Amino acid sequence: MRKQISTSAAIAALLFQSATATASNVGNIDNSFNPAFSLILSGLYGQLQQTPSTATGFGMNPAPDHTQGFNLGESEMGISANIDPQFRGAATLALDPAGGLSVENAFVQTTALGDGMNLKFGRFFSGLGYLNEVHAHAWDFVDQPLVYATFWGNQLGEDGVQFKWLAPTDTFIEIGGEMGKGRGFPGTERVKNGSGAGGLFAHIGDDIGIEHNWRMGASLHQTRRVDASSTDVLDLAGNAVTNVFTGDSQTAGLDFVWKYAPNGNVRDSYVKFQSEFFQRKESGSLTYDTAGVNVTDTFAVTQRGLYVQSVYQFIPHWRVGARYDRLDAGVAQVGVLNAGNVIHDYAYTPTRTTLMLDYSPSEFSRLRMQVARDDSIATIRDDQFLLQYVMSLGAHGAHSY
Predict the structure, then answer these.
(1) Are 122 and 159 in contact (CB under 8 A)?
(2) Sign of the C-alpha dihedral, residues 119, 123, 125, 127?
(3) pTM attached to this predicted model
(4) For the segment 334-393, what is each residue's pLDDT rounded down to a tens digit?
(5) Alpha-carbon distance 85 to 72, whole Å?
(6) For residue 257, what are the CA distances in angstroms to 107, 253, 275, 353?
(7) Residue ranges of domains in the chain, CATH in brackets
(8) Are 229 and 248 in contact (CB under 8 A)?
(9) CA–CA distance from 138 to each of 63, 74, 366 (Å)?
(10) Rounded to the nearest 5°, which phi and psi values hold at 337?
(11) Burial of 21 (0-12, 13-18, 19+ CB in 10 A)
């Protein structure tokens, strides 16, 4: 009798476990299609000696977006989920401190193409370089390097389609390309059929034992600027004028990242070193002083920028970092009609040196202090002191390498 009871109990237990496992699997399937919501809150205090301005020799480029005093930073609201077994969707909405809502990312990705292939379409950050795809809340410093702020307006966004292929090898090899509207600086959004911008990129990386890993890459981006207006550009007489440029813009870049963690334990301590170099060539026509002289002639320039930075987590939760930025404005080739108006060679090298210390009680919160000596503007030095908080609410996926 006892044997029958024991056997019945065992069968009942097995049936219960089976039902529980089935229910659990169903629940996992259902949850995999439930959207994950997140909200990033950030704020900043800036003590600046100078009003942020465009680096010397880069008058046709955006200025850094630092602000003096207490400021609410950009908040990010994200949502992502699997759509079905074939597609995944994600969107990031940026809440501007002054009011208003903008779409930072809104794209669909394939999940079942196979053979290492992935297709993304919609609005996304371009795959060029290393930092461009990293969202602001995951930056290692308060701001982007000078080359990113100047060449891309912090980040290059695109409306279009992107393809990536991950090679089936032990060594990480990734090749990709994209076509888009060309809406992000340095491009100009235009109403036209076809593609307004395109890019190619490739990355390779590997592990060295359990403590070291590295990744290096190369990228190329091409777009066109049409009637791009630049205000308060100084001419040879020292007057602030408005110029308009129309032409092609091509940027090539190299990037390298190396990471080290003693015994492979990144929770306790690690070192990250990274560097990127970009060279941009622009050629076309420049209209000088649109409100006055209004003279148009040829214009071409090659400009460069790089940064080198390192971050060291010396104990759990605490990190220090250092970064060095450098720009080269190049020597412009200017047509005869504008030779007496437009500065060819600014003979100045914009630089900036930055130090930071941050504390992260958890993966969802970070407090940061940053100081910088900004020599990006000739004859004007700006010693900067910044305090920042970044807080994450809700589900938020891990960031890529």
Answers:
(1) yes
(2) positive
(3) 0.86
(4) 999 988 888 888 899 999 999 999 999 998 999 999 999 999 988 888 899 999 999 998
(5) 39
(6) 27, 14, 7, 19
(7) 39-73+114-394 (2.40.160.10)
(8) no
(9) 22, 13, 10
(10) -65, -30
(11) exposed
